[in-house]
Amino acid sequence: MLQEAMIQVRDLSYTYDSGRPGETTALSGVDLEIRRGEFVAIAGPNGSGKSTLARHFNALLLPTRGQVLVDGLDTALPENLWEIRRRVGMVFQNPDNQIVSTLVEEDVAFGPENLGIPPPEVRERVEEALVLAGLSRFRQHAPHLLSGGQRQRLALAGVLAMRPACLVLDEPTAMLDPAGRRELLETLQRLNRTQGTTVVLVTHYMEEAALAGRVIVMAAGKIALDGPPEEVFARARQLEELGLELPAPAEIARGLKRRGFFMPGVPLSVHDLVQVVKGLAQGRGS
Could you give the 3-state DSSP secondary structure of residue 118? Predict the structure, then answer.
């Protein structure tokens, strides 16, 4: 059951190089609420403002106008910064930018050690984070020997050791191969399902967005669409106008519909598409 708001965004606008030549408005009048326990995907074309929005969720950026609250804490107040960063952990596109140690378990311990957490609890957090990220058997490995997907999960484990209530991931699979992407996404789904972690995934892959419980589509610094995946991806024409593609199963179903086949809803996974096709085959055979 979803609980109170984790992140509240009120009339948020952000301008890069504000007041200087070449200033660029990236966000304009965004209103948004993300509740505890949600898995939210933020999608949109390049330049839509999705990454700029995500960077406001743990005060890496501060509003030019408007307000962002994290668990009721205003990100614009300096005294709230430490607590906000503790509650909202960020994972970026390139995991190597977040890896600081030469041993996996030492890298995971880096964050909690810098918080001044007692060593016994640090060890407990490291063990927990390695298990959650599926990296326990690699604890004594050098990070540079891990695969791309494993290094991204190591970056995630380092954030998990801080025990944030919310994970914000900015294009975390952009540099991964299909296997690495699958590993990371399965980890995020497991964290959301079993730990109740709030997950905000910024992505331009529609197949990834379809895995979330809610999809927010950004365009020109504003929210263009917001709702469950099946509702958002039913707006195929609007998505096309924004330069976005449907998930492959939904696109195949759309092609079948154009050929006169009845489509009950929008299949978002291969499994859903197979069930639809089976139903069509049975219908024609009866």
Answer: coil
DSSP-derived secondary structure letter, 144: G
Domains of the chain: 5-246 (3.40.50.300), 247-286 (no CATH)
Query: Per residue in 39-72, pLDDT tens?
Result: 999 999 999 999 999 999 999 999 999 999 999 9
Rounded distance between C-alpha atoms, residue 13 and residue 229, angstroms: 26
What's the pTM value of the predicted model, to 2 decimals? 0.88
The DSSP element (H or E) to which 97 belongs, if any, is none
What are the tokens at 61?
Answer: 């950026």
Q: Where are the alpha helices (DSSP H) in 7-117?
A: 50-55, 81-87, 104-114
Give 122-160 pLDDT, tens digit per residue. 999 999 999 988 899 999 999 999 998 899 999 999 999
The residue behind tokens 């390695």 is 130
214 three-state secondary structure: strand
Yes or no: say if 273 and 249 are a contact pair by the CB < 8 Å rule.
yes
Distance in angstroms (rounded) separating the CA atoms of residues 167 and 19 = 32
Whole-number Å distance between alpha carbons of 49 and 63:
13
